[in-house]
Design a protein that fits this description.
By secondary structure, this protein is of the alpha+beta class. Helix content is 43%, strand content 29%. It has 14 helices and 18 strands. The protein has helices at 2-18, 44-49, 53-56, 61-64, 73-85, 121-143, 186-190, 195-210, 261-309, 315-347, 359-373, 396-413, 445-448, 468-478, and strands at 23-31, 34-42, 89-95, 98-106, 112-119, 147-152, 157-168, 173-184, 215-222, 234-244, 250-259, 355-358, 379-384, 391-394, 417-426, 431-438, 483-488, 492-500. The strands form 4 sheets. It has a 6-stranded antiparallel β-sheet, sandwiched between helices. The longest helix is centred in the middle third of the chain and has 49 residues, at 261-309. It is rod-shaped.
Length: 503
């Protein structure tokens, strides 16, 4: 009988010695108030993975605590509890570069415990890597301003939750901190979406729920402008994925909301820039075509009538031809000057040097020069001064250029009546409102919107390049003002423009 027991004991010891799990057998010693420990037995796995048996076997607390195991206070306390209650206990403990789950069990021998060490190092490293990965992911989600959402199809519960990445710098652990939680029905959730896009979102959800597709995304405009910064318009992208139950049917939908307002606004700016570039290219082509035509017309007249001078028979014919040549010379010079001014304005190089001067004196000079040029005795030039004395600081040459251009146009299209040049002082706006009013032929209503366009000529037989009003508009805008026109057929036209009253 004893031989059989001895064989069983040997098998038992052989089993523990060859176990892949480290094992140690300890005795808890009591000496008054102090507690000690003695290592009675260790297996091969313990000797290889933790501490060699020759270093720890039959050693006591003081010697053991100098090894990688370290302080034994907690271990002895737990072992005492195990011996008192006769119940196993386990806890996690690092030894060197490894993490173990230590399982302490009461032995049949008095004050003796059987201790097993389950290596959980890989699990701990995986958890640590997962925490780092989750923290980086949460930072990315937070930076992208994403909002999680989840839709319970059966109960019609739509939930959304935004998160903020947090990290405990003492424990080096990261986590997601919920900052906003909303719960509602799907239809109530759709109320935040602009009505023009709601049916598209419903259709996407319908396809996902039916199993037609497993993933989907959609961009749409929001009706609630406060969701992403309160801009003039707000856009969002929805990413959605179906989640399936055991029976293979879709049970929930989940995904994220992404704010894309900045991207949409940038796309709009790029489209506008492209359209403007295309428009500028078309204008350039039209400009070159019109300029070629406008230059060719006076040149042909100059060349043609210059050739006729040599064969003119009478003095009257010579004077008539010279007059036509001089008129076309002036027209050609004005066209070239207009083109140069237009180019300078667009390039930002046109001189806008400011000076102090009297507006009333300037108007008198303009009227005097116009009277010298005007040949129609049926038209009267009138000046209207809004202030008895008005000294202003602005670009005098450009202000005169605008008024002279408007006066010349009025003289060109007014056969009888009056042309009034003047200004009013707008006290509330602190502006001067200039006007040139005539009793001429007037402008058709359908032409008013194009009147400030380049090469726009209401009367193709009238002299002029068709650039004057376009240049006037650009000058007035550069000076910080506005220009507009009012007109009635056969009753006359009034051009208005404003500039700041800077003294």
């Amino acid at each position: 009988m004893r031989a059989r027991e001895y064989k069983l004991l040997l098998k038992y010891r052989d089993l523990f010695n060859n176990m892949p799990i480290p094992y140690v057998k300890n005795r808890i010693l009591y000496d008054g108030d102090s507690e000690d420990i003695e290592v009675l037995e260790v297996n091969k796995a313990f000797s290889e993975k933790i501490i060699p048996s020759k270093i720890i076997l039959h050693k006591h607390r003081k010697e053991i605590e100098t090894t990688l195991i370290g302080p034994l206070g907690k271990y002895i306390k737990i072992s005492r509890h195990v011996l008192d209650t006769k119940e196993s206990c386990e806890y996690e403990y690092p030894i060197g570069n490894y993490f173990f789950t230590i399982i302490i069990m009461p032995s049949e021998e008095p004050d003796v415990t059987d201790v097993f060490f389950a290596d959980i190092t890989k699990i701990k490293n995986f958890q640590k890597d997962l925490e780092v990965y989750n923290h980086k992911l949460s930072i990315a989600i937070d930076a992208a301003d994403m909002v999680y959402w989840h839709y319970d199809i059966r109960n019609d519960i739509f939930m959304s939750e935004s998160v903020i990445a947090k990290r405990n710098f003492y424990t080096e652990k990261g986590h997601l901190n919920p900052s906003m939680h909303k719960q509602m029905s799907l239809e109530n959730g759709l109320l935040a979406i602009h009505p023009d896009f709601r049916d598209q979102v419903r259709h996407l959800f319908s396809r996902l729920i039916s199993g037609e597709i497993s993933k989907g995304h959609l961009e749409y405009k929001l009706i609630d402008l406060t969701l992403y910064g309160g801009k003039n318009e707000s856009w969002e992208e929805l990413l959605a994925e179906a989640e399936y139950g055991p029976d293979g049917k879709v049970v929930t939908l989940a995904g994220v909301f992404l704010p894309i307002t900045e991207r949409k606004l940038l796309e709009k700016e790029l489209r506008d820039a492209r359209d403007k570039a295309e428009e500028a290219n078309n204008l350039k082509t039209a400009f070159l075509a019109n300029m070629s035509h406008e230059i060719r017309t006076p040149l042909n007249a100059i060349v043609g009538f210059s050739n006729l001078l040599s064969v003119a028979d009478t003095k009257e014919e010579i004077e008539e031809f010279v007059g036509i040549i001089e008129s076309n010379n002036s027209l050609l010079l004005q066209l070239i000057n207009d083109i140069l001014d237009l180019s300078k304005i667009e390039a930002g190089t046109l001189d806008f040097s400011e000076s102090d001067f009297s507006v009333n004196t300037m108007l008198d000079e303009i009227i005097h020069a116009a009277l010298l040029k005007m040949e129609n005795e049926h038209v009267q030039l009138i000046v209207s001064k809004g202030l008895s004395e008005c000294i202003i600081r602005t670009a005098k040459s450009r202000l005169m250029q605008v008024i002279i251009n408007l006066v010349n146009n009025a003289m060109k299209f007014t056969k009888k009546g009056t042309i009034t040049v003047g200004y009013d002082y707008l006290k509330k706006e602190n502006q001067l409102k200039f006007f040139v009013k005539d009793t001429g032929m007037g402008i058709p209503k359908d032409k008013l919107k194009d009147i400030f366009g380049r090469f726009v000529k209401l009367n193709s037989f009238a002299q002029g390049s068709g650039l004057g009003l376009s240049i006037c508009e650009m000058i007035v805008h550069t000076m910080g003002g506005n220009i507009w026109v009012e007109s009635e057929i056969e009753k006359g036209t009034t051009f208005w423009f404003t500039i700041s009253y800077t003294q």
